[in-house]
Write a structure and sequence with these properties.
By secondary structure, this protein is mainly alpha-helical. It is built from seven helices and no strands.
Length: 107
């Protein structure tokens, strides 16, 4: 599989990856990892994927969290600071909501 990824990664796979990851919650974490390898340094593609999957959600899904943990966030910030900050703002909002919910449930 690694040989196939290394052959395909230098090509523009953004259209395929975007469609494949349109609903990230249906994917297994191994599939997300493969898409990260296939997408290489196309950080904007993955930031857009996260934004699409966060719209109108009430909580941060396990799969989006996995993607955020596996991405090179420093490179994302370097390449597109505006989109990176947009994702970071949404991420912090979800964390705040989760903390509030936990606090309400424990009281």
């Amino acid at each position: 599989m690694d040989a196939l990824i290394s052959c395909l990664a230098p090509k523009d796979n953004s259209s395929f990856i975007s469609k494949y990851m349109s609903d990230i919650n249906k994917l297994q974490t191994e599939q997300i990892d493969l898409m990260l390898k296939l997408g290489g340094s196309d950080t904007d593609l993955f930031l857009r994927t996260i934004l699409r999957n966060l719209v109108d959600q009430k909580e941060l899904s396990e799969k989006v969290t996995h993607l955020l943990q596996k991405m090179n966030l420093a490179l994302c910030c370097e390449r597109n600071e505006e989109r990176y900050l947009e994702v970071l703002t949404l991420y912090r909002t979800y964390q705040t909501y989760q903390l509030l919910i936990c606090e309400l449930l424990t009281n």
